[in-house]
Specification:
By secondary structure, the chain is an all-alpha fold. It has 16 helices and 2 strands. Strands 1-2 form a two-stranded antiparallel ribbon. A hairpin with a 2-residue loop joins strand 1 and strand 2 (71-74). The radius of gyration is 20 Å and the shape is globular.
Amino acid sequence: MKLATIKAACPVAAIFAVASAVYLCSSEKRLGDSACTVLVAESVLTHGTYSLEGYTSLPDGGQIARPRPLGLFHLFPPGGQVLSIPFVAVAKVFGWTCVGPNNEWLSESERVFQGIVASLLCGGIVACLYSIARHWLAVGPSLLLAAGAGLCTPILNVASSCLWSQTWEMLFICVAILLLQRGKIVWMATALSVAFLCRPMAITAIVPITAFILDRHRGKFIPYAIVGACWLGVLVVWSLSTFGTLLPTYYLSLLPSTDPDEPATAFRALRIWEHLFSTNCGLLFHAPVMLLALAFGLWRSRGQWAALAFAAIGCHLLILACFEHNEDGFRQGCRLMLDIIPWLVVLVAIGMNRLHRRLG
């Protein structure tokens, strides 16, 4: 390995270690929608099945569903459960389990485990944000920007608290941006696909990035599309075999309803206002630094990368404004805005670079 590569990797490793330790010690660990994520991973690892049939003491908060008579399944996307399997495998070597002697789910054991893994994932997110910023900035400003993103946004008190689907999705969106910066389009397609398996809201990054590739990397679009189609095929095959539907239940819930008794999906600008300025879930009250970053990006950021970031943020706000069920996330402050943090870092890095060149 070249000496330059080692020197570049050292600050990234240090950032990961320090950030992981901070998250491990700071945020309150709790179980929300991610409850039973690790139980599913342990079930796959131990019994080779995604079903939770046979386990007792399961939560009754809506995380578990029975879409088919033959099984009891976790309601939320499969990516987080599958990606948890390596962590569970390592933990079981040391005697850890979240299943009791009578096949009961041990919620406290899973809560502690999720808190540890979520802290590591968020440490990785901050390290990725630093690397993203280094594309435009020197070491010092990049470190400052990554620290601000890690300590002044919901990463600190939400994403690191448990294995939210947003935590996994944000990590792979960051990896996808890094790979796009380096022109590794096929690997980036894999990262985007995994993000989609973790959370379908990743479509808000996939659509603008696809347009970006058509504009700047047209010759690599076909392999990019093939990789994405293969991953989508994997999801469809798994869903058909597990649920009997083309897509899992959670993904289907995002589609416009055809039930005449349910309200039609419609754009409501008021929801965008709520996500930005309301006391309940608005960035102004829960993460004002994010709102300042967005304002700074609007003021200083220009170019194709800035357009990509604005398009991703715009797509995200558009979807939040269209789907009624997203209002359930208001109970966790601005958790539903976690997805835009990598793009805000891109905008601020571009703006700081342009400002430095103008003043320098």
